[in-house]
């Protein structure tokens, strides 16, 4: 069975967002990033292990796929942006009851019961499934017990309030799989839920 890996940028005080403010993130969607070379290299290694990307409807509506498609075209020789081409190349699944058909390349839309759809996706052959989405989507996956691994990119910032992903029922205890600090200030913590 494939692993569903949820990756989120979080603040030191556990928030994933604060009222439209992304300035706290060391690296967002923009071209300007402050990631160090080791973090860039490790992120590209991770994304090569993924052969499916699960996205929320809101994430694709907000321009996630078009943004990284443009980045792949602008920086075809830049090793840091190798992941952008990977995002474009691998199959993607958008879970939505509002969309009927996909408007994006290599992307299918699945609707219906979240546990059933994600369970079927995990049962298919292949490598890991990366999840990129907002707090609501992440919370739903967590509450349904569908996440096999969490990768938290802890940014050197505190927000003092905002949006969290563990406010619903679901995971209560986590087992640390690994932790690595980077020069840019980000610490990547990997966890698995314990049963």
From TrEMBL:
Name the record gives this protein: Deaminase
GO MF: 5-amino-6-(5-phosphoribosylamino)uracil reductase activity
Domain of life according to the entry: Bacteria
Higher taxonomy: Bacteria, Pseudomonadati, Pseudomonadota, Alphaproteobacteria, Hyphomicrobiales
GO biological processes: riboflavin biosynthetic process
InterPro entries to which the protein is assigned, alphabetical: DHFR-like_dom_sf, RibDG_C, Riboflavin_Biosynth_HTPR
Domain Bacterial bifunctional deaminase-reductase C-terminal: 2-188
SUPFAM superfamilies with a match to the protein in the record: Dihydrofolate reductase-like
